[in-house]
Amino acid sequence: MNQRIRVPQVRLIDLGGQQVGIISTREALMMAEEKGYDLVEISPSAKPPVCKIMDYGKYKYEQNKKERSAKKKQHVVHLKEMHFTPKTEEHDYEFKLRHVRHFLEEGCNVKIVIQFRGRELVHREFGANLMQRIVKDLEDLGAPEQVQKFEGRNMILTLLPKDKT
Q: Over the stretch 11-23, which tens digit does the pLDDT of each residue have?
């Protein structure tokens, strides 16, 4: 901006957006000062660099405004996680299932993790049965993203809310 531009020549764009041409940096600075505006380097990597006559404060304000509106429009995906074991008792199962239902109603993705401890890993069918039961009990609110998979000692399945599927 202004005096910080260190190249001998620049390609100048005036207030109206019209290209003036390639002129010396001093001339461009004088033109900007006459009009009461700043000389701002738009594209420093171009040969010669592109500079524009504008109000720098207004330019920064517009940039911040664009960034804020972009942040408002972006959608954040929430992923909730619920852990079970193959030996989860009925009351605990119902309690955790209520929480999963609540998460799905809110529109969050839910990651179901069945943790195998010790020798439970030998009987993977207990975990698979529990996972099928969870999917069956929640089929009105969510659907599995993909087939359940094993990661180490954990069986994992991600449920998506019905409105996203």
A: 888 888 888 888 8
pLDDT tens-digit profile of 26-70? 888 888 888 888 888 888 888 888 989 888 888 889 889 999 988
Question: Are 39 and 107 part of one and the same domain?
Answer: no
Task: Answer yes or no: pTM beyond 0.70.
Answer: no
Alpha-carbon gap, residue 29 to 23, rounded angstroms: 10
User: Which residue type does 159 have?
Assistant: L
Residue 19 sits in which domain range?
A: 2-70
* Same domain assignment for residues 58 and 98: no
Contacts of 88 (CB under 8 A, 6+ apart): 96, 130
Same domain, 84 and 60: no
Are 164 and 104 within 8 A, CB to CB?
no
User: What are the start-end ranges of the H helices in 14-123?
Assistant: 25-35, 56-73, 90-106
Integer Cα distance of 49 and 39 in angstroms = 12
Q: What is the CATH number of the domain that holds 17?
A: 3.10.20.80
Structure token digits, residue 83: 């852990």
| 63 lies in the same domain as 101 | no
